[in-house]
Amino acid sequence: MIYSNYEYFLEIVKHKNISKAASELFISQPALSNYLKRLETKLGAPLFEQKTQPLKLTYTGERYLYYLNKYIVMRKKFENELNEINAEQRGKVRIGISPWRSSYILPTILPEFSKLNPNIEIITFEGVENELCDLIDSNKVDFSIKSFSYPNPNYQIENIMNERILLAINNNNSKLKELDLHKITDNNKIEHIDIRIFKNERFILPIPSQELYNVIQRMLTINKIEINGFETGNVGTALNLVSKNYGLTFVPESRISHSQHSKDISFFTVGSPTLFWYLTIIYRKDAPLNNLSRLFIDSIKNKYPGKYI
Fold first, then answer.
1. What's the predicted TM-score (pTM) here?
2. Is there a common fold for 91-160+278-303 and 162-277?
3. 264 has a pLDDT exceeding 50
4. N or C: which end of the chain has fewer CB within 10 A?
5. Does 56 score more than 90 pLDDT?
6. What is the CATH number assigned to the segment(s) 91-160+278-303?
7. What is the CATH number of domain 162-277?
8. CATH code for the part of the protein at 6-86
9. Which helix (H) or strand (E) holds 164?
10. Is 104 exposed, middle or buried (0-12, 13-18, 19+ CB in 10 A)?
């Protein structure tokens, strides 16, 4: 039970004298004495020992002072948090992201972001590409980080970058050896190659429900190429098969830029125009992003400012 004007009680405790406390508070001594009597009546016990000078707290007075100080601390803490919330400096950001995107984006962004914004909690919901839209629709996340072949009109979309899709070929591939291009390993100097050279080769393809499958099929249609092959939803599995010279596959450039890959594999750009997809931020059109989400998105865009990853 903390009553109003508790600063009056604190001044009496501080000065151990009602007259001095009244002077400090710019009120009359009778007015402060009446305040103390009303307070003691509400609490049902005296707060100061009777007829002692300087004034000394009773046990009830000591406990009231103890809880009053705790109340003041908690009130101040709440006021600070409330100010931060109103200023949108404290809260949660819920993000949908695929596991392999999470494996390189979060270690790159999160440590520095958390250091600069210690009161913003980042919560991730991981899912495969086709589940990231569902997370948006069900309001489980504020936004998702997702790749598209073409922007989806059902969502508000912000592009982070255009990411190239590379053709992965084993260095022992006979046609590749004929071209003598397999020695190039610098990602910044990736050679372009004509996909039609390999139209009769075995391919390891994504499964049809994946966005990467749609990107690849569109490029093959443009180049009038029909290919069949083994299907897997796991890019790692596809690369492992390529490393065993089982076939060729397509991988997003981030997969080789941010992780180890077999030295037995070379990578090339394909298509005209060069095959790529959009790495985007997507969120509901009827739910604009708050400032907390914007802070995190800006961190991502600042980290990946180029056209290609």
1. 0.68
2. yes
3. yes
4. N
5. yes
6. 3.40.190.10
7. 3.40.190.290
8. 1.10.10.10
9. strand 156-170
10. middle
